[in-house]
Amino acid sequence: MLFIHFLFLISLSHSFFSYQHFKPISIPITLSNQHSQMEANVFSENRISKLTSSTHFNLIKHKPQHAPSVVSVLRNTSNHDINDETSNNSPRTAYKDSWFDLVAINHLSKSVQAATGIRNNESGYESLVEAAIMAKQKFNSIEQQEVIIQALNRLFPESVFLLIRKLLPPSKFTREHFAIFTTLFFTWLLGPSEVRESEINGRREKNAVYVKKCRFLEETNCAGMCINLCKIPTQSFIKNALGMPVNMIPNFNDMSCEMIFGQDPPSSMDDPSLNQPCYKQCKAYKSHETNCLN
Question: What is the pTM for the complete model shown?
């Protein structure tokens, strides 16, 4: 794992400093006020496996070149009326980001901004949240997933992903080390987490990560952003780029999340997280009056 961490640091530094040569795509931005009653958001019924890292996204036409790949429905509710006890009663988690955390946050934020073609002047984690909100506002649900997959593929050279797939084929060792690696090096993105056991092929393994309170979900208060800008594209990216199936199970009541490496996510029709209304305090809706379920 120290070797993987070394690759992560080298790739992060290489990609981060190469941004000075990047020319962002110029794209007209059309902002719209959506005051009408929210409609159910129905995704296309294709296989999730087709959201691969090789799928390209046409930012000029705002349409993916390949057929979308996820089926899900976010249920319409009246006046954003999900149970919002977590948002109202729990104190917001305070983070003291280290220099490495800030570099990683900035790297991911810049990658998302490059993929969307929309820049912002925020700093730290707020910059990442703002980039996600703008992606939520500008693109439909399928396009949001495509954009995030593009952003994740931009994080490191393809050779790094290829090396990881070659050195760490699916196995108990790989699944458990993916879980350890996530808890050690991604607190800046997910929040504090711990390794837990899960059953794979009839055996108990320490291949699960329990995130006590997801930082991204807490900052955005948006179920739609959790699904379209985190859960679905991350599951697709990790499987296709790293060769590791993963099932992400968000809990919208306490904002926790479980990641089970080596387990394929359920079909969209059977995944309860895809039938989720949004929070009253949804940041995307409050900041830009966008339909958070769109």
Answer: 0.69
